[in-house]
Fold this sequence. Notes:
This protein is an alpha/beta fold. The protein has 3 domains: 98 residues, Fumarate Reductase Iron-sulfur Protein, Chain B, domain 2 (Orthogonal Bundle); 162 residues, FAD/NAD(P)-binding domain (3-Layer(bba) Sandwich); 140 residues, 3-Layer(bba) Sandwich (FAD/NAD(P)-binding domain). Helix content is 32%, strand content 19%. It has 15 helices and 19 strands. A 5-stranded parallel sheet has the order 3-2-1-4-19, sandwiched between helices. The protein has a 5-stranded parallel sheet with strand order 6-13-7-8-9. α13 links the parallel β7 and β8. The two termini are 43 Å apart.
Amino acid sequence: MARKETGDIAAGRLDPAQLARNFSDVSPPLDRQRALIEASRCHFCFDAPCIQACPTAIDIPGFIRAISTDNLRGAALKILDANIFGGQCARVCPTEILCEGDCVRNSPEEKPVEIGALQRYATDWVIRDRVALFTRAAATGKRVAVVGAGPAGLSCAHALAMRGHEVEVFEARAKSGGLNEYGIAAYKVVDFSQHEVEWLLSIGGIRVHHGKALGRDLALSQLRRDFDAVFLAMGLAGVNAMGIGDERLPGVRDAVDFIEELRQAEDKARVPVGRRVVVIGGGNTAIDAAVQSKRLGAERVTLVYRRSAEAMSATDHEQAFATAEGVHVIHCAQPAELLSSHGVLSGVRFEHTRVDGSGRLQGCCEFFDLEADMLLKAIGQVLLTDGLSEGGIDLLRLEKGRIAVDANAATSLAGVWAGGDCVGGKTDLTVQSVADGKHAAAAIHEALTADREIQHG
Length: 457
């Protein structure tokens, strides 16, 4: 639902035809001829570095060889057996720093093999036609609760269902998919996420309950009593505060909320955007928010990051994309004050920054102002610990604001595993969350089938 318009924040800045073009697929799929040509460029390396760079260890040369012989089923099976969200990851993975970044053809003289595009070519037909590639094992009689229906949770659920376990997934939101559904730019994932979820669930043995949040509708202690194992994959639902004034000021909002509104809008012409938008942050969320603001019709979009371009977590490709889209980027500046006029946002005061000899960020006491009627905060998300304590007692151990796990994804609480962004420690990427879920499922299955006694407190 569109927010109430305030000041210069308004909906319908562009006509529907222009909006449709702006939010169409940013990377159209390969046709058969182009896929075969691209597949022919692969050297099919032994001990391929692209496999080592993939968090889910997809047999990349193997699936590309299958494409080259028109064996799309074989190609899809190699991909989806390793990464059940292979279709989504083909769209959103930063392949330029993962598989393609390590491709032996990636050199100043030639571009790498388009692995992401080939992966999409090999998997889209499976999702579109609801092709059954996997079957369940015989029922084990074991029941597992999964909290969170994002990439980590659903990856774990699918892997457990394949092994014959019954899985109940509890999701706080109205739809499954997590960040795949709510947190990625609309032009990257066009009419795909829910189809992928439906295909994943078609294996059977998985029930999803929406509108069920840990700490509000569910108690961890009750889940441990009712199920043989629990997997926590609730992601990061909180947003860091800037700490520079009243962030409830009209015109100030979280970038993740803005992105979610765009993704869920049936009519993007009804999503309001400012004329002068400022985005604070240096990650993919900041880039997505900035570019989409521009594509919605903002006249000037400025992205401000407190450190240098090299320190941004957004890839070089994403940074270049934002610049090409008309986003003005300012580095080495941090927000110092929110400026307002008649009770609404009118601008942001920034302070120039520098890094001292020990690597610490310092303000330079030199300031500048940017006019803004809309400010989007993309300065990181945090774990909401609702449900992780009961009666004032912490149920499991946290580390640096995330759930602490061991090498088998087990938490400090017996019978409870965790993965995805709520664990962290690696990269907050869809592909890493998928890998976490699959890894946890293997550990849970081993514990359950070995009849290891799980103590319930």
